[in-house]
Amino acid sequence: MIAMASLEMSYLQEGVAVLQGKMEDLPLLLAENLTQRGGTLYPRHEVKKIIVTGGKAIGVQIKGGQTATARAVISNADATTTFLQMIGEDSLPPGWSKRLKGMRPSFSYFITYLGVEGQPALSCSNNEVFPQYDLEQEYRSLAAGEIPAASSYYLLAPSLVNPSHAPQGYSTLCLSYKAPYHLTGGWDEGAKKTLVEQLLSQAADMLPDLRRRVVVQVSSTPLTIERMTGNRWGAAYGWAQIPRQAGLYRLSRVAPIAGLYLAGHWTAPGGGVAAAMASGEITAELIGNRLREEQ
Prior knowledge:
The protein is α+β, with helices and mostly antiparallel strands. The protein is 34% helix and 20% strand.
């Protein structure tokens, strides 16, 4: 809570940085920088295995059998997939898999993406709305597999900041709930329809004419996020941000196998775009220093 409060206060004191253009431009710029520095990118090549020889990670095996070797291997994939599937329990130190299995992923999201006519009458593009303030009860409900009708929700208007997000005369909105992976009753079409109606009804308090302006509507569930990102349970922030898993108690960026390192929201400093990018920078600097020492 202290960490989140500090984050929120920094927004008020220092403002919030946003990308010029679309969010998807960020990974494209990172890829461009990689190739300019002589790196090789393998898009749409799924890594099936981390190759461990003599207790050291020396490369990866790609789906289809192709291999790539390296002096250091970095994984920002789901931690359970990295260690239990790409490596296997037999190659892990005693107790490591038990610790991993005892850690809890964060909640996910149910998201409805909307294309609407005109511009929303919003003064801010990023709105977190709290119909009531008993957040402990809300999280107890989520832990029980439920999303109450009066849950807090996000109302985002990406095109308000980046007009390129939508054609002229239209705009984009995202409505979302924090959501459990194991929803009571399951994630069937009926559940999705109910949640969309809840979100639209709640958002009508800020945008009364929203329903009649919707021209495109697509929804995603934690199952969608799991399928698209590979994050177990569709975890939005890696591990749940609870005391025994926060900060220094997240998985170390130095894995228990020589030559293997972690980056992303499964290691420190934590979840969110800025924190995940910071972890990559810290891990890269650590590896660079170690490789220089070996020369």
